[in-house]
């Protein structure tokens, strides 16, 4: 920087301010030269704005207005190109056409794209030729070879370079790695690794059992490698089947039906393996299927005997004699040894042992007479066992039908009881009867109904065969009377249609009943007829109703009488009764004050107040009978107690037997006087207590206290 007024005498001072002043940029205050103190990076900051001014060195007075200027950093090629990703991954179908786009990679350059060629990039391929190529300007990677096969090589590693300066010498460059994977297409058909498979299976194998496996190889993967197996030809198509195991991609040959070594010892199958999904673009590579021959050998096995029939049905007449041959079963050993067979009956199916079987020839016979009406069919099982190999056995069901014979006569279908009205008209039908027969239909209907020859001309009833296995009973005459005869027994002969026919005589009970004019039954017994002559039904009902009402009234009266209660008796002086308190405590006399607490004799309920009596007040006072009360001066305790007991027993107003009454006080004014010995010594009593001397040592104290006056006088 230089000012026009600078004469070079050093009086002018240059100063610098602004962005980076004093740090990045400094100025020589004498000459005005501006210097950079460090290396500048355009990518970090492209330009700086500074202000310069000339001032007087001595006074710092501005000599010129400040001048603003811009310092621009000129770019150089100091940044190489950089890709967005260090590694790229891409997929492309195998056998893609040349030029198929795979992926586009992009690089960037931090240098100034407007100045020179520092940021002009060019793409090139360093690794991955000749399989792939890259467009120089866009970075698009494309296939370069046709028919690339995934089965030959699946993954490719490509290195792409981006170089600035337009790719010229001296330019900077950057690289990235691209991993390209060929995806699978169905371009390979399945192939069997061998032309013939050998398998074997035992003739004892059960249907569904696996025989063997075949596998066609398909180098494709995923759904393109799926293979389905099928049997397209062979003499064992009906006996074998094949399914596909999609986990292992194998064809599983299974047994479809049972085999017989003696019938056929080997089979041949033609198995086809075909792709499930076929790509139409590669149909020309087909056909996408392959075939193989499977030979299966049948192995001999020790088989159990085989019956000639899967089941047997025989017939035998009922009531046939024991030992009658029912039928014959036959089994044979299918093996080449053709062992002898023994037969037996499964006794779980013949618990009653109706049949036996000849162990040698298989003839089944009866052991007792059979009754079709009891069991019409017998279902048994017969075993066949090889003589030398007891574990090899076979079982066959045998159904034996018991053929019916006419051995049951027909009977009434129900227990019939007929009713005929007294006013029945002649030839009036009053019941229809039918019959049943335990025999089979061939020996049962048609039934023929008739009256026995001896009563063919029965004067009361006649029979008409309806020819439909029923018969009607009709009245032959009019005017039946219950009083004369109320019950008739009519024998009826029933014959069946068997050969030879059987018949039975059944008795029909016929009751004579009273009926109204419409023919409705009213009564069927003679007693009711007699009662009706005296009293009508309504009168009888009225009488019974009256009796019931009277009974109800009596019951209610008795119940109310028992429940009636009077107010409880209060304690009045004139209604005081004697009490006898009994306890099993023996005291020591009047001097013994600790032997018994007199308070226990008191009524605990009456201590705190007035307690009414719990017994029922008598409705009338019982007057004591004369002669029963002892004399007031009597001292015979036994007589006194016995007298009270007799009064209580004969007193209708006394409480019930086995009751106890407790009084918490001693009455006043008792006619019998007090039984207490208290204060007896102070009274002028004429009683003689000498008898206390005879009561023993326990009453000695009382005898001393209440002895005769003479004794007291002598002592004094």
Short descriptors:
Immunoglobulin-like, 716 residues, 9% helix, mainly beta, flat, 4-stranded mixed sheet
Which helices and strands, and how do they pair?
Blueprint (H helix, E strand, L loop, with lengths): L11 E7 L6 E3 L6 E3 L10 E10 L10 E6 L9 E2 L3 E7 L7 E4 L2 E2 L13 E6 L4 E3 L5 E4 L11 E9 L9 E11 L12 E7 L7 E5 L12 E8 L5 E6 L4 E6 L10 E10 L13 E11 L6 E2 L4 E6 L7 E4 L2 E2 L8 E5 L9 E3 L5 E4 L10 E10 L6 E11 L7 E2 L4 E5 L7 E8 L11 E3 L10 E5 L4 E6 L11 E9 L7 E13 L5 E3 L2 H9 L2 H27 L73 H14 L49 H6 L3 H7 L1
Describe the overall structure.
Its main location: membrane. One of its GO terms (molecular function) is calcium ion binding. Pfam families: CADH_Y-type_LIR, Cadherin. The chain crosses the membrane at residues 539-560. This is CAD11 protein. Mean pLDDT is 81; it is low at 528-533, 568-576, 600-607, 609-622 and 711-716. The N and C termini lie far apart (175 Å). The chain has 716 residues and is mainly beta. The chain is built from 5 helices and 39 strands. The strands form 12 sheets. Strands 32, 34, 37, 38 and 39 form a 5-stranded mixed β-sheet that branches. A hairpin with a 6-residue loop joins strand 29 (377-386) and strand 30 (393-403). The chain is flat and about 180 Å long. Among the domains are: 12-72, Immunoglobulin-like; 82-183, Cadherins (Immunoglobulin-like); 196-299, Cadherins (Immunoglobulin-like, Sandwich), CATH 2.60.40.60; 306-403, Immunoglobulin-like; 411-523, Sandwich (Immunoglobulin-like).
């Amino acid at each position: 920087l230089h000012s026009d007024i600078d004469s070079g005498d050093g009086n002018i001072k240059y100063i610098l301010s602004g962005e980076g002043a004093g740090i990045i940029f400094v100025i020589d205050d004498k000459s005005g030269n501006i210097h950079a103190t460090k290396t500048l990076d355009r990518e970090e900051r492209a330009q700086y704005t500074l202000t310069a001014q000339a001032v007087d060195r001595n006074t710092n007075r501005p000599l010129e207005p400040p001048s603003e200027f811009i310092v621009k950093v000129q770019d150089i090629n100091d940044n190489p190109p950089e890709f967005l990703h260090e590694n790229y991954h891409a997929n492309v179908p195998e056998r893609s056409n040349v030029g198929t786009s795979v992926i586009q990679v992009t690089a960037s350059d931090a240098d100034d794209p407007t100045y020179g060629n520092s940021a002009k990039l060019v793409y090139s391929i360093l690794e991955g030729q000749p399989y792939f190529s890259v467009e120089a300007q866009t970075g698009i990677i494309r296939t370069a070879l046709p028919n690339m096969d995934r089965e030959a090589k699946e993954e490719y590693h490509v290195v792409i370079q981006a170089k600035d300066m337009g790719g010229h010498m001296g330019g900077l460059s950057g690289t990235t790695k691209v991993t390209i994977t060929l995806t699978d297409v169905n371009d390979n058909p399945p192939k069997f690794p061998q032309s013939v498979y050998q398998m074997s299976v035992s003739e004892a194998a059960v249907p569904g059992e696996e025989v063997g496996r075949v596998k066609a190889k398909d180098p494709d993967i995923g759904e393109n490698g799926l293979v389905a197996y099928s049997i397209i030809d062979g003499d064992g198509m009906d006996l074998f089947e094949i399914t596909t195991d999609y986990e292992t991609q194998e064809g599983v040959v299974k047994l479809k039906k049972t085999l017989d070594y003696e019938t056929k010892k080997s089979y041949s199958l033609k198995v086809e393996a075909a792709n499930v999904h076929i790509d139409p673009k590669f149909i020309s590579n087909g056909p996408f299927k392959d075939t193989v021959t499977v030979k299966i050998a049948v192995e001999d096995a020790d088989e159990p005997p085989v019956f000639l029939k899967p089941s047997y049905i025989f017939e035998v007449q009922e009531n046939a004699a024991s030992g009658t041959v029912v039928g014959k079963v036959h089994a044979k050993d299918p093996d080449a040894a053709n062992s002898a067979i023994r037969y037996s009956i499964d006794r779980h199916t013949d618990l009653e042992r109706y049949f036996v079987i000849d162990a040698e020839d298989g003839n089944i016979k009866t052991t007792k007479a059979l009754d079709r009406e009891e069991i019409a069919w017998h279902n048994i099982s017969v075993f066949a066992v090889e003589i030398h190999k007891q574990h090899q056995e076979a079982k066959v069901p045998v159904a034996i039908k018991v053929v019916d014979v006419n051995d049951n006569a027909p009977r009434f279908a129900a227990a019939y009881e007929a009713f005929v009205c007294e006013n029945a008209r002649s030839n009036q039908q009053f019941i229809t009867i039918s019959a049943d027969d335990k025999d089979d239909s061939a020996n049962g209907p048609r039934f023929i109904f008739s009256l026995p020859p001896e009563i063919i001309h029965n004067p009361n009833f006649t029979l008409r065969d309806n020819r439909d296995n029923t018969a009607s009973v009709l009245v032959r005459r009019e005017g039946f009377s219950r009083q004369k005869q109320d019950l008739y027994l009519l024998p009826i002969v029933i014959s069946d249609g068997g050969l030879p026919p059987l018949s039975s005589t059944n008795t029909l009970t016929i009751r004579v009943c009273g009926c109204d004019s419409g023919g409705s039954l009213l009564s069927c017994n003679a007693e009711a007829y007699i009662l009706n002559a005296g009293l009508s039904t309504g009168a009888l009902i009225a009488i019974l109703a009256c009796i019931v009402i009277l009974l109800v009234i009596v019951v209610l009266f008795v119940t109310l009488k028992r429940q009636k209660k009077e107010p409880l008796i209060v304690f009045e002086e004139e209604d005081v009764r004697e009490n006898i308190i009994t306890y099993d405590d023996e005291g020591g006399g009047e001097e013994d004050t600790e032997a018994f607490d007199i308070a226990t004799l008191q009524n605990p309920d009456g201590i705190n107040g007035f307690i009414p009596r719990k017994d029922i007040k008598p409705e009338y006072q019982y007057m004591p009978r004369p002669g029963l009360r002892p004399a007031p001066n009597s001292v015979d305790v036994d007589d006194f107690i016995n007298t009270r007991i007799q009064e209580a027993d004969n007193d209708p107003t006394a409480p019930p037997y086995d009751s106890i009454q407790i009084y918490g006080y001693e009455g006043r004014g008792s006619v019998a006087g007090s039984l207490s010995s208290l204060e007896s010594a102070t009274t002028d009593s004429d009683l003689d207590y000498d008898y206390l001397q005879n009561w023993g040592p326990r009453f000695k104290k009382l005898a001393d206290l209440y002895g005769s006056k003479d004794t007291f006088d002598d002592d004094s």
